[in-house]
Amino acid sequence: MTQKIKISWKAFGDKPEIGRFVSSVEIETEFPETVAHAQICEVVFADTNTYQGYIWGKIEPKMSAKRTHTSISVGDEIEIDGQVYICADLGFEKIEDVEIKKIGDVVFSVIAKDKVDN
Hints:
The chain is α+β, with helices and mostly antiparallel strands. 17% of the residues lie in helices and 40% in strands. It has one domain. It has helices at residues 37-50, 54-59; strands spanning 2-9, 15-17, 20-30, 77-80, 83-87, 92-94, 98-103, 106-112. The strands form two sheets. A six-stranded antiparallel β-sheet has the order 2-3-1-4-5-6. The longest helix has 14 residues, at 37-50.
């Protein structure tokens, strides 16, 4: 099954946006229907941190030559077929299910709403 994936790095990119740098890459992938979005996010994380693998092979040719940072970190987003997931303190969460804490414009922490102490 083909998935449309957009990976958005919220820092260290080469496109100024709202006082910070943002960079993104869009690709199409072929994962079986049995592979959950959470698993795809983990593959993206692993490949962008090790500079190798299936996803890396698809995104590397599309990345800016000026780009100096590719690893996924807290606050970065992965959109799969229209559903946005954000790299959280631990793993990935649907963006609508999280509380995002910032220091200025920089994401400091992303925690699932059901795990946030009120």
